[in-house]
């Protein structure tokens, strides 16, 4: 779908990979994948602004060509935009990458999550998840499960083999929104098989996601995530924002610094700023109109007018408690 030169241009001009990325790719593909994920996390957000800002009569399921066009711009998007484009890009630079399909727990439609797996020359298999609306910075070894990482504001994720053909991502103790699980210690967030999927196999779930608000949280409220650059973290530390106490953890929290991996997560009327150890700041809003200036500020790669259009579209829906609130 794209040439090596197009992929190279994207990696160097949009993701700003180091000049020697091609050497890294040849010598240590796994290191390259980690480098790709870290640069992606700060520069290309998970965001549903471009999806929600489309006028109702013009909403359609994206084509594979649409995914490529939006992917090359670096504006971000949801899982099909980010992960399927990543698959296309990694294939273009010579890696054995393929898309797989997953289902979110509590989602009204099955198969709405697109992910990427990369098989290295030694046969090892890694998930490169840059299209989840949650913070993650490293490839996940599918041959080394269970695999636990601490990266959700003090609550860990654990990837487990559920059955011979099914893998799942569990949230342990609580989730990004800060709520602890009542009566249980964990929750299955997403499950998937390891079978390669064609783009056409996402047609129905993406039609629902991009056009049908009753079956699409992304059309009803913001769901956005990215990591900050070090200078942005420094601005937060020196600015007017006072970081709140942690939520959901019991161990000692290391202090934040400009070198900390700090993410921002927006959901409904909340903006959460945190790192793998804690939710450092939680800001609540009374309306999307009030929230819009901060979305524009913290997601500067987005068109401000599109942010305003999306906020107007989300404002049509009543903000109610859903199953997602307890497992994110």
TrEMBL record:
Cite the GO molecular-function annotations of the record. arylamine N-acetyltransferase activity
What stretch or stretches form a coiled coil here? none
Q: Which domain of life is it from?
A: Eukaryota
Q: What are the protein's UniProt keywords?
A: Transferase
EC main class here is: transferase
Record InterPro entries = Arylamine_N-AcTrfase, Arylamine_NAT_domain_sf, Papain-like_cys_pep_sf
Transferase among keywords: yes
One short Pfam family name for this protein?
Acetyltransf_2
EC numbers, comma separated: 2.3.1.5
Query: Would you identify the family this protein belongs to, as annotated?
Result: Belongs to the arylamine N-acetyltransferase family.
Quote the protein name from its UniProt record: arylamine N-acetyltransferase
Which species expresses this protein natively?
A: Folsomia candida
């Amino acid at each position: 779908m794209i040439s090596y030169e197009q992929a190279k241009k994207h990696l160097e001009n949009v993701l700003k990979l180091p000049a020697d990325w091609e050497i890294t790719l040849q010598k240590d593909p796994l290191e390259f994948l980690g480098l790709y994920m870290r640069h992606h996390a700060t520069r290309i957000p998970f965001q549903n602004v471009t999806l929600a800002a489309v006028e109702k009569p013009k909403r359609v399921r994206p084509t594979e060509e649409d995914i490529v066009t939006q992917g090359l711009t670096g504006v971000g998007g949801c899982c099909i935009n980010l992960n399927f484009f990543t698959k296309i890009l990694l294939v273009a630079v010579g890696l054995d990458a393929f898309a797989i399909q997953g289902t979110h727990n509590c989602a009204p439609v099955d198969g709405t999550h697109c992910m990427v797996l990369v098989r290295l020359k030694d046969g090892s298999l890694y998930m490169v998840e840059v299209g989840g609306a949650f913070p993650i910075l490293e490839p996940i070894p599918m041959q080394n499960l269970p695999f636990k990482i601490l990266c959700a504001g003090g609550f860990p994720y654990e990837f487990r083999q559920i059955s011979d053909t099914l893998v799942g991502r569990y949230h342990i103790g609580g989730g990004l929104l800060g709520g602890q699980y009542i009566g249980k210690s964990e929750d299955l967030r997403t499950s998937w098989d390891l079978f390669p999927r064609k783009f056409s196999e996402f047609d129905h779930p993406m039609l629902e996601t991009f056009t049908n608000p009753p079956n699409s949280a992304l059309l009803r409220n913001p769901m956005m995530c990215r990591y900050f650059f070090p200078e942005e973290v420094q601005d937060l530390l020196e600015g007017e924002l006072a970081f709140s106490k942690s939520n959901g953890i019991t161990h000692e929290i290391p202090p934040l610094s400009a070198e900390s991996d700090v993410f921002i997560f927006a959901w409904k009327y909340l903006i959460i700023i945190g790192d793998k150890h804690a939710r450092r700041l939680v800001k609540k809003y009374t309306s999307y109109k009030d929230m819009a200036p901060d979305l524009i500020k913290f997601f500067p790669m987005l068109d401000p007018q599109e942010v305003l259009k999306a906020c107007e579209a989300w404002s049509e829906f009543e903000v109610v408690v859903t199953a997602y609130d307890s497992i994110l």
